[in-house]
Automatic annotation (TrEMBL):
Coiled coil: none annotated. Its EC number is 3.4.-.-. It comes from Pisolithus microcarpus 441. Belongs to the peptidase M28 family. M28E subfamily. It is an enzyme of class 3 (hydrolase). One of its GO terms (biological process) is proteolysis. Keywords: Aminopeptidase, Hydrolase, Metal-binding, Protease, Signal, Zinc. PANTHER family: AMINOPEPTIDASE YDR415C-RELATED (PTHR12147:SF56), METALLOPEPTIDASE M28 FAMILY MEMBER (PTHR12147). This is Peptide hydrolase. Its cofactor is Zn(2+).
Amino acid sequence: MASPELQELITINEFPHPWGQHTIITRINGSSPVEDGIVVVGAHQDSTNMWPFLPAPGADDDGSGTVTILESYRALLAAGFTPKRSVEFHWYSAEAWEGGLLGSQAVAKSYEAEGIQVYAMSQFDMTAWVKAGTQEEIGVITDYVDHLLTTFNKELIDAYLSVPYVETKCGYACSDHASWEKAGYPGIFTIESSFAHANHANIHTSHDRIDVSPEFSFDHMLEFSKLAVAFVIELAGWETA
């Protein structure tokens, strides 16, 4: 998929955690100085069931976000994208497990302790559901996020997506962006719809599957992949020389 020249810029690493599931971090190294910071796109790879020991397929929460950013990563590699700022894609462990946000908190704290500069972070958590009888929309979270970066995110949606955004709130620490905000980095969160129209009936149950309803939409997910690509290119820049 990636050219030999681009492959030399790519690293893939596991960030270990004591609970057994590791966070996966893939990086495309950029040409600009480390002081310019990195652009981070994230999703969480774990899923949970509110009833212990029952299946937790997690197709929407957060298989959808996991695949969304994987597709954006694939598209960037296929296009031969070489960034100015370094770009990282994170698949977090243990977002939904026990206290929540465990994987992203560990990563963000580590970056803070090492003095790693993060220019911008965007979280994709639940990107597949279009509730029957509602207008298709992109949910832009407006509470406990970086407001300047959120404004920029809305501009990206207007410029590059075919679906309008709606402002919505989800409360403190509702996804992994909160770990980055807590560590002092600018973080934002985009979700499948307004919070009221999200897939609350199925997440954290054995019914969080792609075949549970036609409301699960891969076309809707693709809009979020486009948004992730736009976020990366606009903020990291494309080295054309």
